# Entry
Amino acid sequence: MKSRKNGFLAALLVAFLVAFSTGPAGAAMPSEEERDILIVSTLLRFNDANLSGNYSVFREMASLDFQKQNSEQDIARAFADFRQEAVNIEEVAVREILPDEDGETVHDGVLRLSGEIELSRFRMTYLLRFQAERGVWRLYSINVDLRQ
# Structure
């Protein structure tokens, strides 16, 4: 299993803005840095939605297919445990990303990113899928699991 170290949150946000101002060309595999940005920015947006109980931005930033399949209420129900337990995973911004060996693939235009991140209270596994829309990778599906 390979490991990568995340930079500081400020550098991450700047890199996010730069990397996605032009977006990926077609459905090619994004660079390692772009994959890290996708993982961390998605998990931070997920965290904010759970802590606030407001899933509107999380949903609006996702792909059109995700939006068609999931209302804000659907998303809130799916992640009720995170919200009820007030689980805060914002430290993903500064933790090491440990991608699965086969967890970074593009198949039929869908980018699949999976792996784990060791947090201070949890070991988090993630499976994120993205679709390229107008040159930008947008969330298509999300699965996050926390274990102590």
